[in-house]
Each structure stands twice: as structure tokens, then as C-alpha cells.
Amino acid sequence: RLTFAGRLVPDFCGSAMIDTKPLDELARRVAALIAATPAKDVERNLRALLASALGRLDLVTREEFDLQREALARARERLAALERQIAELEAGARRRDSTGG
């Protein structure tokens, strides 16, 4: 399992997600700090900085993640069915070969 800053990073095959509580708490504290000061332009600059930093990350929405997980599950089911079908065909071919016909 991959971790970053002590948090589990999703492997896109399981359902592990990064804990957003620390980010939410940071945002709440920054908002409270800015609200207590007259520096609204600092807030705008900080928001722009955070938006820029987050924009560079290769993130997906929860909805996109769930859709991809469902697609992967369907693909795995189809693969398993095809593997079973191949095994049945191979077994039939071995039976025909062993009976000489």
C-alpha cells in the first residue's frame, strides 16, 4: 500500500481514499484567520495559489473515480468469464485429442 504524509493513497482497485479532514481543517483555520484581518487581497492570493497548486495535481472527482471503479469491475468480470470459456474450450479440445477424433 502506498502512503503519503502518513495517509493511505488510493490504488484505484480498492476503495481507500485520502482523508480530507486535515485539508478541511486547514481551510477552516485559514478562513478564520483571514476573517479576523482586513487583508482580503491575501485571501484572494491564497485562493489563487491553492487553486493553482491543486490544478497541477492529477485528481479526479469522486463520481469519476466511482465510474472508473465500476468499469474496472465489469472488465474483471468479463475477463474471468472469458478465461472460463477458454478453459472449457481447451478441455474439450484435449478430450477430442485423447479420444482420437
Q: N-to-C SSE series?
A: EEHHH
Strand neighbour order, sheet with most strands: 1-2
The Cα radius of gyration reads 26 Å
Could you tell me the strand content as a percent range? under 5%
Main beta sheet:
2 strands, antiparallel
Judged by helices, strands and strand pairing, the structural class is mainly alpha
Ends apart, CA distance between termini: 51 Å
Structure summary, number of beta strands: 2
Provide tags for this entry.
101 residues; two-stranded antiparallel sheet; 3 helices; mainly alpha; 2 strands; 69% helix; 4% strand
Question: Which SSEs are present, and which pair or pack?
Answer:
Blueprint: E1 3-4, E2 7-8, H1 21-35, H2 40-56, H3 62-99
Antiparallel strand pairs: 1-2
What can you see in these coordinates?
- The structure is a single chain.
- The protein is mainly alpha-helical.
- It has helices at 21-35, 40-56, 62-99; strands at residues 3-4, 7-8.
- The chain has a two-stranded antiparallel ribbon with strand order 1-2.
- The two termini are 51 Å apart.
- The model has no long low-confidence stretch (mean pLDDT 80).
Short account of what is shown:
The protein is mostly helical. 69% of the residues lie in helices and 4% in strands. The chain contains three helices and two strands; from the N terminus they run ββααα.
